[in-house]
């Protein structure tokens, strides 16, 4: 039985992960944490998630969590995730990060830490989205420079980072497939007058409205035709179940930095 700890267990994603652990064979919830001062501290984690009393009180002690679990799942904030990373390194525990909005420096810290611990870090834990990454890269290689690429993402109005981590990764996948420097060709929204679209631009556009869980559309526009690839998440459960699958997988791997493409076996051999 793999014992899982959940960071941010009182948040929207944390509650969903706790609920999904309950009905997944081979895993068990061992603890849940929140930041100091959270009003839910001391409450039962199971009751917070709507699955009934589990006799596991929500607390703010990361070190205690690391001692009692095999792997930690963290979908919190960049600041909180860096604290989780530090605690995981100190106790040599495996960790799964689904946090978005991390800076390049914070991503570098994860990469450095993965020299000594097992770590899965992915902008999106959805199995469908990770198939999307694979498909979009293949399509970009086939269509090449003759087709313009535009990426549109939509999320709920409470999401703080933009563009989404998934949209950023999609733009990276396209840039890699077309041998372009994303820092030079990435265009994030458009306004006003211009001389027209640059031939190698990769457009990324953000929508925020209502309770949209997550939508990502990649448009390949050619002269006389357009090809669109689209993914819609209908529930946070898809991300939660992907993260649990990653937790089950990573505990049997050597130390290193992995993503969901590794977990699902989608990388080219």
Briefly characterize the structure:
The protein has 269 residues and is an alpha/beta fold. It is 37% helix and 23% strand.
The ordered string of helix (H) and strand (E) elements is: EHEHHEHEHEHEHHEEEEHEH
Full CATH superfamily name of the largest domain:
NAD(P)-binding Rossmann-like Domain
Integer tally of domains:
2
CATH overall fold name of the largest domain = Rossmann fold
Percent of residues in helices comes to: 25-40%
Please state how the strands of the largest beta sheet are arranged side by side.
2-1-3-4-5-11
CATH class of the largest domain: Alpha Beta
Going by helix content, strand content and strand pairing, the class is alpha/beta
Average pLDDT: 94
Distance between the termini: 31 Å
Rg (CA only): 19 Å
Largest sheet: 6 strands, parallel
How would you describe the shape?
Answer: elongated
CATH architecture classification of the largest domain? 3-Layer(aba) Sandwich
In DSSP terms (H or I, runs of 4 or more residues), the helix count works out at 10
Strand portion, in percent? 15-25%
Please mark out the parts with pLDDT under 50 across 5 or more consecutive residues, or reply none: none
The count of DSSP E runs of length 2 or more, i.e. the number of strands, is 11
């Amino acid at each position: 039985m793999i014992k899982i700890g959940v960071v941010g267990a009182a948040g929207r994603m944390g509650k969903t992960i706790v609920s999904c652990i309950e009905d997944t064979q081979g895993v068990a919830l061992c603890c849940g944490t929140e930041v100091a001062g959270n009003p839910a501290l001391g409450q039962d984690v199971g009751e917070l998630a709507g699955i009934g009393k589990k006799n596991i009180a929500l607390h703010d002690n990361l070190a205690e969590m690391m001692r009692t679990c095999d792997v930690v799942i963290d979908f919190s904030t960049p600041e909180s995730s860096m604290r989780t990373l530090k605690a995981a390194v100190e106790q040599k525990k495996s960790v799964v990060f689904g946090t978005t909005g991390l800076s390049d420096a914070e991503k570098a810290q994860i990469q450095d830490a993965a020299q000594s611990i097992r770590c899965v870090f992915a902008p999106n834990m959805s199995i469908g989205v990770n198939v999307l990454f694979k498909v979009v890269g293949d399509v970009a290689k086939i269509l090449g420079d003759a087709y313009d690429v535009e990426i549109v993402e939509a999320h709920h109005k409470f999401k703080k980072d933009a563009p989404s981590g998934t949209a950023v990764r999609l733009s990276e996948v396209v840039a890699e497939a077309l041998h372009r420097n994303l820092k030079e060709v990435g265009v994030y929204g458009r306004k006003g007058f211009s001389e027209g679209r640059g031939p190698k631009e990769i457009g990324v556009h953000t929508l925020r409205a209502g309770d949209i869980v997550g939508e990502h559309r990649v448009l390949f526009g050619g002269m006389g035709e357009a090809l669109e690839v689209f993914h819609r998440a209908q529930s946070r459960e898809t991300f939660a179940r992907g993260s649990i699958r990653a937790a089950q997988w990573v505990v049997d791997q050597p130390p290193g930095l992995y993503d969901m493409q590794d977990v699902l076996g989608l990388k080219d051999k």
